[in-house]
Amino acid sequence: MMADHKKEAREKFLLGGIIVKAGLSKADRAFLLGGLLELARVAAGSPEHRRLRDIGEEAFKASALKGEAVHAREMREWH
After folding, report:
1. Three-state SS for 5?
2. If you placed Cys at 78, which of 14, 40, 63, 64 could pair as Cys (CB 3.0 to 4.6 Å)?
3. HSE-up of 27 (CA within 13 Å, CB side)?
4. What pTM does this model have?
5. What is the three-state SS of 10-44?
6. What residues have CB less than 8 Å from 25, skipping those under 6 apart?
7. Which residues, in sequence order, are CB contacts of 15 under 8 Å at separation 6+?
8. If you ran DSSP here, which 8-state letter would residue 34 be given?
9. CA nearest 64: which of 50, 76, 54?
């Protein structure tokens, strides 16, 4: 039970980090949720999914190059 709680807390922490990394920490919550709901409609493996994933991968790589290697590694491990 405690392990599940820790895992869930870690997932939330990492998701928050993604929001910050994207520059959206001050964005309206409804806007963020709307955007995420739109992303959820993108079919896995579709050209749009691959395009967005490539953008994310590049952002993680850029972070690692800027001295955020440990954080970027954790983010990659999570997804």
Report:
1. helix
2. 14
3. 17
4. 0.70
5. HHHHHHHHHHHHCCCCCCCHHHHHHHHHHHHCCCC
6. 19
7. none
8. H
9. 76
